Amino acid sequence: MKPTPFIAVEGPIGVGKTTLTQLISSQFHYHTLHEIVDENPFLSKFYENIEEWSFQTEMFFLCNRYKQLEDIQQLLQKQKPVVADYHILKNLIFARRTLTANQYDKYERIYHILLESLPMPNMMIYLKASVPTLLNRIELRGREMEQNIEPSYLEQLSIDYDHHMNAFQKKYPSIPIIELNSEEADFVRNPAALAEIIEKISYSMNNR
Questions:
Q1: Which of 190, 191, 174 is nearest to 3 (CA)?
Q2: 200 contact partners, CB below 8 Å, separation of at least 6
Q3: For the segment 44-78, what is each residue's pLDDT rounded down to a tens digit?
Q4: 91-147 residue pLDDT tens
Q5: Where is ATP bound in this sequence (predicted)?
């Protein structure tokens, strides 16, 4: 019996995760799970002073995403497919970059304890884009808290994502990762590009 689909769409800030998630949900009629961002009371302070507010910010995200994973588990147990515009893996990506060594050690232990027995996605979609494109999309969507993000931060974040996705693939070789450049595969303006993505997803799911 094939597992109930659980797709996670990932990539750096502004790459188009939520847009693609909504398009996949519409195509397959999957339940959609969105990352909680605006509710984090520390995020605006984090972008102003990363060193001072990183631990509070990361712990808030971890607790909220843990709760969402519990919700996903309940849906999957009822055989309801899910597509999410993030995966909790991103917590380690951001935490490793922003926390001190001592903070990260504590954080990582809590992370692994919380994730015990919670569901893993059975497909990852990894979106990539150039830093100028990410900056432009961040500006267009107009979240005030994100307007102070430095290009160097996004550049390093993109490098970190590549590293962690490669590590994820080695650790979980049975979970397919579909890697897409969201500039070349313009799934918003080009129906053919979206159709190709949907075909890749369908092929991967049907051949598991």
A1: 174
A2: 178
A3: 788 778 788 889 889 988 998 999 999 999 999 99
A4: 999 899 889 999 999 999 999 999 888 899 999 999 999 999 998 888 887 777 677
A5: 11-19, 137-141
Annotated active-site residue 105? The verdict is no
Residues of the binding site for ATP: 11-19, 137-141
Indicate the annotated binding residues: 11-19, 137-141
Mapping DSSP to helix (H, G, I), strand (E, B) and coil, where does residue 127 land? strand
Q: Is residue 84 one of the residues assigned to a domain?
A: yes
Q: Is residue 1 included in any domain, yes or no? A: no
Give the number of C-alpha atoms closer than 13 A to the C-alpha of residue 145, restricted to the C-beta side.
Answer: 14
Residue-wise burial string across 26-44, b where 16 or more C-beta atoms lie within 10 A, e elsewhere: eeeebbebebeeeebebbb
Residue in 38, 71, 85, 162 annotated catalytic: 85
Distance of CA 206 to the CA centre of its chain: 23
Domain count within the chain: 1
CA distance 128 to 175: 19
Q: Is residue 100 part of a domain?
A: yes
In a domain, 124, yes or no: yes
Q: Say what the pTM is.
A: 0.88
